[in-house]
């Protein structure tokens, strides 16, 4: 009954039947224009916290906003036993693996001359593989790393006339890592020598060779006994802890 | 506080506008409610399927891989967007004080929209889906949806341009924003994903679309409702109008940056998820500002929200919006996100947006609008109360179980050497919560649908006075005491 009336309403004219002036439209409140209240200090504090958290998220994970960076800056992948890591709880990587990894990174400085293979360039840059300077004691090697060597000098019977610069701007740890790396990777180590050099040894070596101003010459280096090793405690390859004096190895 | 009494002209004007929107808006509401019931049933079945995977094994239509996408499509395009469109049309007509003149055109495009949604749901259900959440219908369906949407809501723009008052009310701004933002995100996501973008980027775009659907469409529509319903029912102004403006512009500026953090740690440049995560946190500014603003406006009105169905649903929706914003910000940081990624939590978070804040606010609007456009009152306050509590318990159960289950599942997923199936076995207990939640919500929506159809066919209560959640003893049925409550 009501709907029949409604069907004939002319909206354009605004004619409304009595049925449409229903109670619900009458009782409705008017819509007020907005108020001018001010929010308390707590909202400002909350806003500040939100801004700080958001900014923290943005700058801690964006890793420099570069297109070729895919991980957050503090991303550490879980270690996988299938790739040689320890099982159960993850982070148990043998100390020596870590040390060698560091050494390989530092070795990037050496690749230009000695090549990634450690074979050098015939006639120009001496090889590390089969080099008596690498296979022998660590004192000569430490001296070369810290102060460089100026040619002419002989490596594996071949004569080279080159200047190797000093690398004493690297930290003790990095020098120690790279010496460990080239000895274990490219060297033919004497029986009982694990090839490891520690940061402590390099620290002592810096003091030992502190008198040297210019790069070594072959003659100066040959004055150091061939089998001489840098002084310092040997370490356990699993943990990196120093071994007691006179222990195994 | 004294409320100025409306003049007879104003009352007549309101009645004219309501009358002009009656058929299109009721069409959208009733068909949306039907889709909602379908979506709830599909949601219940899919959760059940996740708990008891062997159920209906021989029937291909009852697999989780088809039930769940069909449920999401029905929930979002069938219910949420359709009900939202109805609310937007009515709100805009009322706020600009312009009757809706294109009744027939809107009804036609409304049918087109329903046909497109039916196509989307059925194609996905019949196995032609593309497994891209919410964009998984075949490629030829999306232009139909886009065109139906544009043809339906475009009438809002001329209304807005010919509005009577000079400065737009904040709800008008949110409605216009939602009208314009949805086509942008929908068309962008569909074109880029279907044009053969790298699959990884397609997944990122999909996450961007889902997040923007919440922040660029659902949030503005429900805020438009809240900024309308709350002052209307309380008879008070918005506490701080400049703050409301600020939250609009913050939302407009920040929402488009969110989304990519859902795939953080994936093969995207790190800055993409970093910016998305930051935007999800910054957007809390807009949401906190809005929710605080609305809650202060309502200070001392606890009686109102005890009695008024519209207000109660709207306030609940706003609280859910705040919780959604906080959870989505937390899960977009590495700290929480790495354990929540790819887990039930994401389903819970999306459902919190689609049902928790959006639908609850829209229910509030529907309880307000329908008596006005049909000219009768809701049949039963008790059933509205049941609708509220079953929906509220349902969505809270769903969010909590999915959050806890998500932590369990995501934690299992994060341990690389744990079998994938372990994550499912461990979290399958929580799926019971999801099934229960959809059961509760399903029952509440059955009541809602029944009431809505009663109103639609003119079987509403004809007596004076609004239908309230409780009748006040002694003062029952006094229209004056309940002025403006619904």
Computed Rg of chain B: 22 Å
**Helix/strand order of chain B, N-terminal first:** HHHHHHHHHHHHHHH
Oligomeric composition of the shown chains: heterodimer
Tell me the name of the CATH class of the domain at 92-222 in chain A.
Mainly Alpha
Helicity level of chain A: 25-40%
Stretches with pLDDT under 50, minimum 5 residues of chain A: 1-14
Q: Pair with the most extensive interface?
A: A-B, 57 and 75 residues
Would you write up a description of this structure?
The complex is a heterodimer of chains A (249) and B (486). By secondary structure, chain A is mostly helical. Chain A has a domain at 92-222: Cytochrome Bc1 Complex, Chain D, domain 2 (Orthogonal Bundle). Helix content of chain A is 36%, strand content 4%. Chain A contains ten helices and four strands. In chain A, a hairpin with a 2-residue loop joins strand 2 (153-155) and strand 3. In chain A, helix 4 (95-106) crosses helix 8 (172-186) and helix 8 (172-186) crosses helix 9. Chain B has helices at 8-51, 64-96, 103-128, 141-153, 156-161, 170-194, 199-234, 241-254, 270-297, 302-307, 309-331, 334-340, 344-374, 381-414, 420-456. Chain B has one domain (8-456): Cytochrome c oxidase-like, subunit I domain (Cytochrome C Oxidase, Chain A, Up-down Bundle), CATH 1.20.210.10. Chain B is globular, with a radius of gyration of 22 Å. In chain B, helix 13 (344-374) packs parallel to helix 15 and helix 14 packs antiparallel against helix 15. Chain B is mainly alpha-helical. Chains A and B meet through helix 1, helix 2 and helix 3 of A and helix 1, helix 7, helix 8 and helix 9 of B.
Task: Produce a short descriptive summary.
The complex is a heterodimer of chains A (249) and B (486). With 249 residues, chain A is mainly alpha-helical.
